[in-house]
Amino acid sequence: MNAKVTVLQHPLIEHKLAILRNRETDNKLFRSTLEELSYLLVYEITRDLALRPVRIHTPLAPCDALQLAEQVLLVPVLRAGLGMVSGILNLIPSAKVGHVGVYRDEHTLQPVEYYFRLPPDAGSMRTFLLDPMLATGGSLAHAVELLKTKGGIERITVVSILAAPEGLEALHAAHPDVEIYAAMLDDKLNEQGYILPGLGDCGDRLFGTL
Ligand code: PRP
Ligand code: URA
């Protein structure tokens, strides 16, 4: 495989993935687990955020410290990406949030765009594009294209939960500059374009629309 993906390995990530994959998991537990998993992922993928020195005062003495120097932008791909936002905001409350609405046509599997909104000056922000499912890669490739062309964003980091090899290849071929992180690389797609073994339809399981 040509695509470069960083698979984040940790016992807690494995444990929470088992909960997400389990068909017995109800909507409430699915939502809270996706939130927790996103929190764990972002701790790893933000290791290279830039810092700047600040002079602060503890209750006892002046002290040199460091604080974030970059404005973080989270862009969930609707709908399922929404399930990743609150967990990450708990860790980075200063992050701004944009939205990309894309769904895939269930017959052609091609992405259909219906919403796009970014904060002003998004082009200068450190951008994390969130979608739990990287299946054919069509939705994420389309979302990346929008962030580049309409948002003027140059550096984009994709954060997924499950990725299929087919989708990774397609996303890498369309946007070789994009960094891709996932909690797990799954086996393949089925004939309907669902990830195997996967976790089913993520948006439906989050929002109870099965
Ligand atoms: C799902 C998922 C991804 C997309 C992945 O969204 O959340 O955005 O499919 O598939 P792809 O890699 O083949 O494009 P879906 O189209 O089901 O829309 P929804 O989140 O609104 O349910
Ligand atoms: N979208 C999902 O929600 N699940 C899949 O397996 C593929 C696309």
Structural class call reads alpha/beta
Shape: globular
**Roughly how many Å is the radius of gyration?**
18 Å
| DSSP helical segment count | 6
What proportion strand? 25-35%
**Small molecules (ligands, ions, cofactors) in the structure:** 1-O-pyrophosphono-5-O-phosphono-alpha-D-ribofuranose, uracil
Mean residue pLDDT: 97
Helix amount = 25-40%
Element string (H = helix, E = strand): EHHEEEHEEEEEHEHEEEH
User: Between the first and last Cα atoms, what is the distance in angstroms?
Assistant: 33 Å
Total beta strands: 13
Give the biggest sheet: 9 strands, mixed
Give an account of the 3D structure:
It is a single chain. The protein is α/β, with parallel strands linked by helices and 210 residues long. Helix content is 32%, strand content 31%. The protein has six helices and 13 strands. It has helices spanning 11-21, 27-45, 82-91, 138-149, 165-174, 202-207, and strands at residues 5-7, 51-57, 62-68, 72-78, 96-97, 99-104, 111-117, 126-130, 133-134, 156-163, 179-185, 188-189, 195-196. The strands form three sheets. Strands 1, 4, 5, 6, 7, 8, 9, 10 and 11 form a nine-stranded mixed sheet that branches. The chain has a two-stranded antiparallel ribbon with strand order 2-3. Strand 10, helix 5 and strand 11 (179-185) form a beta-alpha-beta unit. Helix 1 runs antiparallel to helix 2 (27-45) and helix 2 (27-45) packs across helix 3 (82-91). The longest helix has 19 residues, at 27-45. The two termini are 33 Å apart. The relative contact order is 0.18. The mean pLDDT is 97. It binds 1-O-pyrophosphono-5-O-phosphono-alpha-D-ribofuranose and uracil. 1-O-pyrophosphono-5-O-phosphono-alpha-D-ribofuranose (PRP) binds at residues 77-80, 103-104, 109, 111, 131, 133-140, 167, 193, 201-203.
